[in-house]
Amino acid sequence: MDPIDRxxxxxxxxxxxxxKSWLRRWWPVPAIxxxxxxxxxxxxxxxxxxxxxxxxxxxxxxGTAGDRPTPVVAQAATVQPVLDVTLGALGTVTSRNTVTVxxxxxxxxxxxxxREGQIVRVGDLLAVIDPRPYQVxxxxxxxxxxxDKAQLANAEVDLDRYRGLIADDSIPKQQYxxxxxxxxxxxALVQADQAQVENARLNLSFTQVTSxxxxxxxxxxxDLGNQVHASDANGLVVITQVQPIDVVFPIPQDQxxxxxxxxxxxxxxxxxxxxxxxxxxxxxxxxxxTDNQIDTTTGTIKLKAEFANxxxxxxxxxxxxxxxxxxxxxxxxxxxxxxxxxxxxxxYAYVVQPDKTVQIRTLKLGASEADRVQVLAGxxxxxxxxxxxxDKLRDGASVDVAQAGANGAGAGRxxxxxxxxxGAVGNAAGGKAAATPVAAPAGxxxxxxxxxxx
Length: 454
Fold this sequence. Notes:
By secondary structure, the protein is an alpha+beta fold. Helix content is 34%, strand content 31%. The chain folds into four domains: 3-64; 70-88 and 328-428, Beta Barrel (conserved putative lor/sdh protein from methanococcus maripaludis s2 fold), CATH 2.40.420; 102-236, Helix Hairpins (Orthogonal Bundle); 240-326, Beta Barrel (Elongation Factor Tu (Ef-tu), domain 3), CATH 2.40.30.170. It contains seven helices and 22 strands. It is elongated, with a radius of gyration of 50 Å. The termini are far apart.
């Protein structure tokens, strides 16, 4: 064989030893590719199985939840024989008369004749100012009066004598006229002295300080033995009239026509005053009158009511919760305020149907009393409305109804929801009066439940 041919054959052929070396160098590449393919196939199969299991479980849960009725608490719409429509407000107790007792004369305070907090009547003695200087002034004025009276009597005797002499022309006419003038002068002097006596007697009476009104005495402003003056700013004591006593309170201007109509008909409008928590009745009175102008900053007008206050439970400047009784509505259809919801259709309620499903029913509401509101249209007596559990309801949802008892099953949530619903009722019913205690006024509108029409 030619040498050249032998070289070409050596270049194109491999020995077994060379092939083994090539396999040892490149075998990891196909192994890695195979491992990657196996991993990808395993991951895809595992994800598919997990997704199928999750979808199956979710479908099972959805089917179970959809078939389970929603537990709710319901109450029936009832006809109330008398619905007492009231207006609530925050009022201030005001004394009809308040007097700061001052002395009319200056001097030493020698006696205090009252006890702090005592009820006094007109003319009761309160204090005594040292009367001695004023008694001396009275005696002096009386002495001057007696002296001038004697001079007047002497002048009148001389005038009578001169009158006889002038008839006989025994004295000049001028002397007679002078005597007439002297008598007139002495008469005027006696009248002035009499006025001085009366003034001194009046000042002496002012040393006895008496009560000008009926009322309750406050704290003493001056202690015994001090010099008091008519110009003292604080005076001796303050007396406030507490029987009867007045309460001033504002109402919205929209309610003013109703009040004016009742006042014009001479109807007696009862006003109740409660303490700060709105639970304890402090007294009942009668509406007297309204103010003569509306406060433009608040859109309210002030009313004044009179209370007999026999037990003294009302004090001047005390803040009270006021309830004005506007009118009584007979045979009013009412439902709990907690049942009223607000949403896109306006005010509505969930009404329980005979097949244990609920229906959204739009309502037209009237006045409210405590936790119940009058229904003018949209419901009939005996129909049940949901008062608790409305959060998960939709129109046509299946429900499991529990009747609210006297204290109400689920009474906690309906009371809270009722306050909000009462606010919605008051806003949407055109400013209708409500009888909820003002210590816990209805603040906002009820929240629309899920599933309400949009």
